[in-house]
Design a protein that fits this description.
Layout (H helix, E strand, L loop, with lengths): L1 H10 L5 H9 L6 H7 L4 H8 L24 H10 L2 H10 L1 H6 L4 E7 L7 E4 L2 E4 L10 E10 L3 H4 L3 E4 L3 E10 H8 L6 E10 L11 H5 L7 E2 L1
């Protein structure tokens, strides 16, 4: 019964109708103090009130173990959600529980740029990355969701390190790209700002070969507000 009340109070935090009933039935276990703390489920308060000694471990993520994680969805549904979730939803899942990062280990990067400082291949700043060497072993399986500010000539080295591109801001200059590389970076259709300088997009990414058509250049830019 306490479990049901706890779940109910998490959803309807202003409903106090159960407080008196539960308190009168289980005064020692379910006081008003517990019901108030249950809104946010503070583990220390829970543990103190119930004096739990044999707590089921969640061996995958917590040291020392705290509580067994239990989800309302069955495992196949959770796998589907984590597999299909876009970057924004995936970020929310990562913030809610390490379990989801264990299911889909895909770091989210909101800003990637080329950085010329010597002796450092990669530098992290909040959810962004500055790189000097595109072949850094730390750059792998990244979902790029915000901005890309790069020399076009090193983008072919970066793309194999990315698992997904949901860019909104692109700044290219000085180099060549293939149509396949361009499509990978823009296929999400989320681009709002697109700027290129001295950059050629050709069939195979080699200078002098057939360039991309205007239709194919624009097909992935339905939301673009600035294009140069």
């Amino acid at each position: 019964m306490l479990s049901v009340v706890y779940r109910y109070r998490r959803l309807f935090i202003d409903d106090n109708s159960f407080d008196v009933k539960i308190s009168s039935s289980f005064e020692n276990l379910a006081s008003l103090q517990y019901l108030q703390s249950a809104k946010f489920f503070k583990s220390k308060t829970f543990k103190k009130l119930f004096k739990m000694k044999n707590i089921l471990p969640c061996s995958l993520f917590y040291v020392p173990s705290k509580f067994l994680q239990d989800f309302a969805f069955p495992s196949p549904i959770i796998r589907y959600i984590t597999k299909e979730a876009q970057s924004g939803i995936l970020q929310k899942l990562y913030q809610s529980c390490k379990y989801f990062f264990g299911k889909r280990r895909q770091p989210l990067c909101y800003y990637l740029s080329f950085w010329c400082q010597k002796d450092v291949d990669i530098q992290y700043f909040k959810n962004g990355i500055n790189i000097r060497n595109a072949n850094s072993y730390e750059l792998r399986n990244i979902c790029l969701t915000g901005a890309l500010n790069e020399f076009s000539e090193i983008i072919p080295q970066i793309i194999p390190k990315l698992s997904e591109s949901r860019l909104r801001y692109i700044n290219f200059h000085m180099g060549n790209l293939s149509i396949a590389e361009y499509d990978f970076l823009t296929k999400s259709g989320e681009i709002e700002y697109f700027w290129m300088l001295f950059t050629k997009i050709t069939v195979d990414g080699k200078d002098g070969n057939e360039p991309i058509s205007l239709e194919n250049l624009l097909k992935n830019l339905p939301k673009a507000e600035y294009l140069q």
